[in-house]
Amino acid sequence: QGTANRISIQTSSPQTTISKHIYGHFAEHLGRCIYGGFYVGESNTKVPHVKGIRKDVIEALKQLNIPNLRWPGGCFADTYHWKDGVGAKDKRPKIVNVWWGGVTEDNSFGTHDFLDMCELLGTEPYLAANVGSGTVQELTEWLQYVNFGGVSPMSAWRKENGRENPWKVSYWGVGNEAWGCGGNMKPEHYANIYRQYATFMTDWSNSNKLFRIASGANGADYNWTEVLMRDIPHHMLGGLALHHYSVIEWNSKGPATGFSEEQYFKTMKQAWRMEELVQRHSTIMDKYDPAKRVALVVDEWGGWYDVEPGTNPGFLYQQNTMRDAMIAGMTLNIFNNHADRVRMANLAQTINVLQAVILTDEEKMILTPTYHVMEMYKVHQDAKLLPLALQTKDYAFGNDKLPAVSASASVDAQGRTHISLVNIDAKNAQEVSVDLFGGTTYKTVSGRVLTAKTLTDHNTFDKPENIKPVAFNAAKLKGGALNVTVPPFSVVVLELK
Ligand code: AHR
């Protein structure tokens, strides 16, 4: 921290790729994420859909270029038996969603629905398999069902159910939160279970290598990472997960809108913790895997508040304000800057649950401030990271303080440089001097900004465009120097050519 905001960006010889998979999403059978969010049923006459999948949602998500979508949970995944969700819909068993509100799950959205939807979205599926209450056989049969093109009982069943060719799914989660809802296991026990499951997770297609992801630590449980990295042979481990939510206190989370500056500050503090978590888990991973073969996969992140008044507490439905835009912008900057190890991540969750990018109400749909940040940041997907050094002023509140500015930068395949800047200061604009060194010459700068009148502003079904990105004119380029005035609580993405 310092008395001025200065960023030095090395513009020559970029090396690390910012994996597009950092910009992944997560859809659980929870509240109205799947039912009412993605899926309205094939007989719905009110909401335009393709085989029950909302058309408006597909169009909106396509604009984000979402690289992967995790499904069916979350905690739900370790209660999910995939065979319940294939075959004739009227014959599928109705089960209780024990984790999320105790509601009836009619299994009308299953494997075919999800994987076909991923094709519509142009995104890669990431299937979270049931380890907590499933069996090795159940998982190997799921793999065979979705990935095998030859003759086998499961591929024959898939064909009977209307799908000739396998979908070839690469990303597989081996359980979820094994330390908690996934089985309350100790890390040594889970490491053994993982080894057993992973052994039988055959790459049926032989053309797309399976990327297996181990259930990772709960926030700062560094011992979990230590044990898994030590005890699981790395050739069977594509990624190790990590979950971190920006929650003030689990028993007093505070409202999603109408929060105080104190609550805002506390949320920002939790969001900033991601930097420390990524650094410390990475350090442990470096010890066992200096070549960085195993990815750190932050497959659940985002803000978590009290549910909206009058809604089912088990549905985790919350509004989304500029505070969420701040979480998204700074978290994605953290992931970009650690792209050598963080190679996949999933915002929780896509629609109507936690830090959603989309909210729906029957036939209505709105895009949240978080959606707009994801859309503005898509320029970083698969671009080359430009390393930067950042000195920032403080955002002070009471006796505490946080870095006010965060940033990341990349150069894309067309040679365009993008810089994303976030100012979390609730009151003050930040003047930022950006020093571009390394010999690249830039002629123009343009950009967009996402901000609002107040921190608690949000989009509603009546005012869906209250918050949206607009052109940004407060960046001045002179020689190798760029000066930017970043308004309070705003996200700016610049393009230099
Ligand atoms: O995203 C909501 C829940 O949070 C997930 O089901 C679980 O994995 C986590 O605890």
UniProtKB/TrEMBL annotation:
Q: What class of enzyme is it?
A: hydrolase
GO BP term, pick one: polysaccharide catabolic process
- Give the record's keywords alphabetically: Carbohydrate metabolism, Glycosidase, Hydrolase, Signal
Domain of life the protein comes from? Bacteria
Q: Which reaction does it catalyse?
A: Hydrolysis of terminal non-reducing alpha-L-arabinofuranoside residues in alpha-L-arabinosides
- Stretches assigned to the Alpha-L-arabinofuranosidase C-terminal domain: 299-490
**Alphabetical list of SUPFAM superfamilies matching this protein:** (Trans)glycosidases, Glycosyl hydrolase domain
State the oligomer form and interacting partners: Homohexamer; trimer of dimers.
Report the family membership: Belongs to the glycosyl hydrolase 51 family.
Q: What is this protein called?
A: non-reducing end alpha-L-arabinofuranosidase
What species was this sequence derived from? Answer: Dawidia cretensis
